[in-house]
Amino acid sequence: MTIEEAQREVRTVFLGGFPGGISSGLIWLASAAAGTWGSKRVAILILVLGGALIFPIAQLILRLMGRRATLSPGNPMDQLAMQVVFTIPLTLPVVGAAALYRLNWFYPALLIVVGAHYLPFCFLYGMRVFAVLGGLMIVGGLAIGLYASSWFALGGWIGAAMLLSYAAWAFVALGRARTS
Questions:
Q1: Which of 20, 134, 169, 179 has the most other CB atoms within 10 Å of its CB?
Q2: Residue 107 within any structural domain of the chain
Q3: Distance CA 88, CA 55 (A)
Q4: How far, in Å, CA of 78 to CA of 49, rounded?
Q5: pLDDT of 159-175, one tens digit each?
Q6: Does this model's pTM top 0.85?
Q7: Do 152 and 35 contact (CB within 8 A), yes or no?
Q8: Are 170 and 16 in contact (CB under 8 A)?
């Protein structure tokens, strides 16, 4: 299997990242809502614990759509996908340290970590759009952390908007690709 074939299968099976984007975006949305109208502690728990459910929820979405949810056994991208997935839990201590120093840095720090996590998706999916998403998340996290950290949940809302916008774009782009 060539790299291009492996990337094509990743794009096809995981619908260009749509199921992961929608599940991640909804978790960020629930967290931002909790951070705005509820408890900051609950908001953090929703995002950290809910983040562990992103891939299983994405697989459930694929199965509910009547699609397979795994790559073929010979696809070398499966190993890269697993490595990329584990970057988030391994970097959560950095987010925790930032939040312990200043609680309102929780979302900006997580935006930076998740944005960096999306950069290898460029190669995994063979889609440069993940560099745009990752870059926007990193820049957004930095800007909020440096200039707008007085509102705790701002980064949560922005993260949710970015992820849900990406999911909508991926869904529309995939629909166009199927009809052309």
A1: 20
A2: yes
A3: 12
A4: 24
A5: 999 999 999 999 998 76
A6: yes
A7: yes
A8: yes
